[in-house]
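Support case: pyridoxal-5'-phosphate complex. Customer-provided input:
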Amino acid sequence: MSKSPAELKAEILRLTREYAQLAHSNHRPGYETAAAAPDAAPRAPFVAGQTVVPYAGRVFDEEEVSAAVGATLDFWLTLGPEGDAFEHELAAFLQVKKTLVVNSGSSANLLAIAALTSPKLAERQLRPGDEVITVAAGFPTTVAPILQNGLVPVFIDNDPVTLNGRLEQLEGAFTPGKTKAVMMAHTLGNPFDLATATEFCRRHGLWLIEDNCDALGCRYDGRLTGTFGDLSTQSFYPPHHLTMGEGGAVNIVREPRLKVLVESFRDWGRDCWCPSGRDNTCNKRFGWQLGELPEGYDHKYIYSHFGYNLKPLDLQAAIGRQQLRKLPAFIQARMDNWQTLRAGLADLEEFFLFQLPTHATGWTPGGFTWDASGHRTECSWFGFMMLVRPGAPFSRRDFVRALDAAKIGNRMLFGGNLLRQPAFVSLRQQRPDAFRVVGEMTGADQIMRESVFVGTYPGLTPAMLAYLIETIHAFVRRH
Ligand SMILES: Cc1ncc(COP(=O)(O)O)c(C=O)c1O
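Agent response - structure generated as follows:
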């Protein structure tokens, strides 16, 4: 007798899991023991100098592969049931009002700013020429949406130790009547000074957008980052705390009215909020009169904004849901790996300036020492950041070349001082008043010249971490 679709699906998924256990054992979490995954093929043995030690990557097992195949068999394709579930689950994890899934972290940043340009926000609308305070060194698409929306980024400097914005410069960057928002990232999983930022924004009536793309699971005074501002954003590109290949999210922290705006900009600019495949959620699909359209014009095709289509596939959300289940272990692994590297490299402080959490004043094997503010940060690190000290007997270039030769993945702090990137240099030539810079960007320049980070991601095994520590020591010894 022929099999039913449900029986066939179950068989395909059983085989899929079997396949993934054999084919993808090297992508399993690095902290997993063989006993925890008895059905998985053993990892390829680590061979120093041959096995690549990535700075980041996809960490998954048969659950993600089976979720992806299951969603493909269901063939909903466009954002649907898996997307809904993922949005609820991530919002519950973060304890925010609502999460909207999108196709990248850059799209999330674009939407966060675009939503605040909605005329529906009346006197709080961001209008062309309004200023948004941001930080010079970091990832370009934290800043690009400000310019893309006709707003003026105002740059403050970075602190070279925390790598976050020097928030003591906020007041100097503020222009009454012009400054309307602050948008910045928690650099490499290090929460910026949220006490100062939230107080500043509250006092001046400004929007706060946290780019939480590199910091899912990090905490400030015990509370998760991404829950302090009005909006926050996530990236689910593979190096990030969880992945769905490409993907991102906008978190609506408190105000429900922002949800409708972000959703509208994400979904073509439409006024209607029906999910894909559903009609008439508002119960008056043909009962609206908006703009100068005739009474009863189909609400599905009424546009209150100049929007985009930035939705991911449902399949991506299916993968993301499995990753979410692993997220607490991933967050812990990043903390543990950072600690292992920090302890293993502690004798090299003379050559490297190691990143510190915001509000920390130093590191000891027993933990961090803290400033007098009373605030505390907990970092689930995106990477292990070192600045090569100017007096070191080697340059940053010598160091990254040695890491490359040893097959150790490494990265600089993304775009460095963004103001020195070709895009900003031409903008300054063509439209000098398109952005403003507050003072000297000495910290951002230092980060651009001296910084390099290696991995802390959950795919790293104890053997890889030991090799990393030994390779860096051997490099220093050679000099
Ligand atoms: C701080 C920050 N914001 C935004 C992004 C953009 O995310 P995506 O690559 O998903 O567009 C990144 C990328 O890594 C990032 O590091």
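The domain at 81-268+302-315 is CATH 3.40.640.10 (Aspartate Aminotransferase; domain 2).

Case will auto-close in a few days if no follow-up is received.
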